[in-house]
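Changelog note: in this version the structure field was regenerated for every chain. One regenerated record is shown below for reference.
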Amino acid sequence: MITREECAALDAADPLAAFRGEFSLPPGVIYLDGNSLGALPVRTPERVRAVVEEEWGRELIRSWNDAGWFEQPYRLGRRIAPLVGAAPEELVVCDTTSVNLFKVLTAALRLRPGRSTVLGDRAAFPTDLYIAEGVTGLVPGARSLLVDPAELDAHLDGDVAAVVLSHVDYRTGELLDMPGITARVRAAGALMIWDVCHSAGALPVELGASGADFAVGCTYKYLNGGPGSPAFLYVAERHLAAGPAQPLSGWFGHARPFAFEPGYEPKDGIGRFLTSSPSLLGQAALESSLDIWERADRAAVRAKSLALTDLFIALVEDLDGIEVVTPREHERRGSQVALRHPDGYPVVQALIARGVIGDFRAPDLMRFGFTPLYLSHTEVWDAARHLAEVLGSGEWKDERFARRGEVT
């Protein structure tokens, strides 16, 4: 079993170690919840201050032009594009993941007239399921069918218009085969929509090379854009050339927004998927995080992610009552480890009381996210030790950690 001293040696040789200083983390905290909310980059407060006090406070409305506010959704999209394997003109930052999924799923149904079924993963994050249900409820004859991704091929018939899947399972951390699944979906004549919320910034994503048709993702997890930071959407260039229609035809997506015409004419390209004015403060926070990502080697990020999750699994897999749910195979693992324990909720609360922050998903999953830019091997070793102590001492049985209806 690896020692803490050996972990310290790994940290000393870590090519990403310098990035730790780019983030503001409370002393004494081991943060293993970056898969829910990323840590604060140290430069973010100053960037947001500049937008508030200078661009807004001093320059006022002139900043729409002088500070480039109008172009910000495209500019940020071009910066995120390399992180998910997209061409610069195929991605734009706007709205939320839910709103963007509504837009691209509706566009996909319109691109497949005569087909009426949307396939989704029954265990996907609920917003994906709810949006699919809402979209199909608005289209006469359409339906949303939930299946197990392992059984996807059995349902890929001539009525399937689109398939919506998460690249990484938010509960278990399982990584799906994006190229293989996309190829099978497209061979069946359907369109493939990927939710990359739990993979963007955590591991290499290749939307273009995989042949994906559409994708949506958030920026507040591994991309560290901050709570409620804007989402992004991807549309393959072949579909943009066809001029797909999306349902939220707001003025920001109009070809001539300042003509104030009564009829709607969409922009060319990815701009047609914009709806309304961008959230400039949220986008400013995201800017400072992308400054970091443009200096990070993505292959090194993935290598360290796998090393950290390998380490954690090795240290905790034999603990009493623990079942490792996350796949052991690297090609099937995202950047989190999910552990099953019958008393997972109080165990997580006991860890949080010790300064080890993970989270819980009902009924019995403890989730721990591993963010390579600001997490060290020694912190992983310490987190595993805390978990062993909590379980070994029965500390989690303390009534302070009893579940009272809330979910972390």
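Spot check on this record: The mean pLDDT is 96. The longest strand covers residues 160-166.
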